[in-house]
Amino acid sequence: MAVGLELTLHETEEALRLSGLGYDNSDDTDYAYMYILSAFHGCPIDECNTVLEKLNVKPLGTKSKK
What we know:
Structural class: mainly alpha
Largest sheet: none
Mean pLDDT: 88
Strand content: under 5%
Radius of gyration: 12 Å
């Protein structure tokens, strides 16, 4: 959601903190998402997903309702 809303890494971290959540810097998946938010801010989701897939991390997207 943060990529779609074009939130910065700082804004995302603050939103997570306020909701009682956060990133774990030692977790490779969390670190990959933080990297996307900082290095690819404002980029299309497809471009972000290409990077995530190369890092073997689940791509961003929507979950379909069934």
